[in-house]
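User: I'm writing a tutorial on reading structure tokens. Could you give me a worked example: one chain, its sequence, then its tokens, then a sentence or two explaining what the tokens reveal?
Assistant: Sure. Here is the example chain.
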Amino acid sequence: MTRYRIIGSMTGNSMDAIDLVLTEFNADKITDICSYSEAYTGDMRKKVNQLRNIIVNYKVSMKDLEERKEFQSFHNEYIWGIANAIKKMCRQNDIDLSSVDAIGFHGKTLDYSPPSINQKYPYTLQIGSGQMLANLTGIPVVYDFRSNLIMNNYEAAPLIGPHNAHIAAYEGDGIYYNAGNTSNLAVIINQKTKAAWDAGPFNAFSDALIRRHTKNKKAYDINGEDGLKGKLIPLLLKKLFDKSAFTETGHNFYNLPFPKSGDPAFYHLFQIKDFQEPIVHFYDVLHTCEYFSAYIAVHSLKYIPVEWEITPRFILFGGGWHNQVAMQTFKNLLKGKGFILSEHKKEFELIQKRFGNAEIFYSAFGEFMEARLCADLAR
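And here are its predicted structure tokens:
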């Protein structure tokens, strides 16, 4: 059997929504039948952050975690929410649940320490009972995509590379660049993944700022509208590069070669003095964070070996590219425009020579790429 109809489910690190897509895979043909997104409440994001803090700060065991009331409450609400969203999507689009072959379920990441950060004891923790989701929907669930990779000394993130390679059958070779909570890129050559890695935080910093500034009334800077009100603070850009992401051994994450992958636990925005309350020039600080997202996305291109023959094309996906500050900064930096830290000027000149004339477009598969990835992995 080569034809499958599979629902992909993703709730990313931003924890802003449940994203679903029902995709049909017919041999090499990929067709989205319908999609659905349901926003999370501030209360759900708060519960996730509480659990993350318990795990990251106190290193509780799985047994202890499972026995905590806050874990059970969140877990059951989380799975019920996904099951109900799946039923809503199918009901709204006249899809019979029995016609769906499987659900590809990523689960909610609460902790992650890959080999690039923790060589001695790497681990990953996604929560979410696949069996409970199967029971609630009546559809088989395929899940736990990361554990086997971690146990065999792979990063286990980003997972998107193989799916980008499948999409390349439609959109061609090039660099597929995701802008979510973290940005990651996959280098696709001859419709195969040559390499994939995380560049660093993208939405993570601006989302955190907006949520704190608005007391969770806003989840993110819609289209970068608030960031457009500010201007770049060069000194703050340098502090972000030097101090906002580092490994357990104290190495700057942005200066690590691939393979590497990031996680919100590695990002240290509020430990930088400029981000401690009160922030006098909020819009300038926000603008600088959004500029920084694009800055490190371009900076990470320096790790692509010069001998790789790459089609000069950027295929973008993920909601972060809708941020006007980040998107325009990305384009400008590739063209040699915009502010560059003095220590990076030679690196950026080489990047500009290589990619300054590259084609840049948003993928036709872009809005639900990560959800569809889970469907593809399930297949």
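What the tokens reveal: DSSP finds twelve helices and twelve strands in the chain. The longest strand covers residues 29-39.
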